[in-house]
Amino acid sequence: ELKFVPESYSKTYLHWLENIRDWCISRQLWWGHRIPAYYCQDCGDVVVAKEAPTVCPKCGKNHFKQDEDTLDTWFSSALWPFSTLGWPNKTEDLDYFYPTDVLVTGYDIIFFWVSRMIFQSLEFTGQRPFEHVLIHGLIRDEQGRKMSKSLGNGIAPQDIVKEYGADTLRLYEMFMGPLDAMKPWSTTGVDGARRFLERVYRLVTEVVKIDENDHSLEKIYHQTVKKVSEDIENLRYNTAISQLMIFANEAYKNPTMPKEYLEGYIKMVYPFAPHLGEELWNYIGHTNTITYESWPTFEEHKTINQEITVVVQVNGKLRD
């Protein structure tokens, strides 16, 4: 009932479950959900209950001491898919949103979080918590090391957003490479992402001229809609962005196009740069939000039939 993307990570998941061992769920931490186990101080009986017991079921006395340990972080995190929606009550949110469609997470917590969400959901709701598990890689520092507090080599997202904008960070992370790859952080790459978004902004606000009769960009437009649509559907965000870059280059060479092409291009930019997409949508005369607009469509016979090789410079390296 579950599909891992990339599929190879399902082996990691199954390896843990096929070699399962008892899970020590108690932790000696100051912060966390306190274990709801109460020990009778007279006979030693243990009562696990939602509320503190008033009478010991074994000896009838009422001297209890609650367990001082907290639950493992992953124990409560594993309840996330349904507990956030109102479970155990039958709420509208639970009925509408559960099971969910996609979980996006790092490969390093497949066992700690993913597997536990799955077996807790199966135990308490009888359903899988999600259909797809999308595994992403980790962004490492420029030397290829994992970012950590001890090394002091982490990048604060809010600092990048303050300097470059949220759209730039979002686009850069999706353009760095295949989603599941290990990717070194590069400030040069962030600069490149910002330059592309600035290029898109100028294209819409300064360069494009609307002419409903000029279809010289017809082939590349339909090819772009097809390529971006298929890549998003298959989670290939980096190549979808490459195709958006190709169209921008062609539009700068021949900036006259029907309004349909310009609107369609902004719609395709929007998932990768939502703030920019919304601003450009309003700039070309719309007063409504772009969020609920329909996705652009393409005609197969108008797409480019032959494969094309595109060279994009990223981080000082040429990538086909």
Keywords:
single chain, 320 residues, alpha/beta, three-stranded parallel sheet, three-stranded antiparallel sheet, 14 strands, 42% helix, 14% strand, disordered C terminus
What does this molecule look like?
With 320 residues, the protein is of the alpha/beta class. The protein has helices at 9-18, 73-77, 80-83, 92-97, 110-125, 157-164, 166-175, 187-207, 218-233, 237-253, 259-269, 274-283, and strands at residues 3-5, 26-27, 37-40, 46-48, 64-66, 70-71, 100-106, 130-136, 139-140, 183-184, 209-210, 256-257, 312-314, 317-319. The chain is built from 12 helices and 14 strands. The longest helix has 21 residues, at 187-207.
> Mean pLDDT across all residues, rounded?
91
Give the biggest beta sheet.
3 strands, parallel
The proportion of strand residues reads: 5-15%
Major beta sheet, strand line-up: 1-8-7
* Total number of helices: 12
* Broad structural category: alpha/beta
Number of strands: 14
Form type: elongated
Sketch the topology as an H/E string, one letter per element: EHEEEEEHHHEHEEHHEHEHHEHHEE
| Uncertain parts | 313-320
- What is the helical fraction, as a range of percent? 40-55%
Give the radius of gyration.
26 Å
Q: End-to-end span in angstroms? A: 36 Å
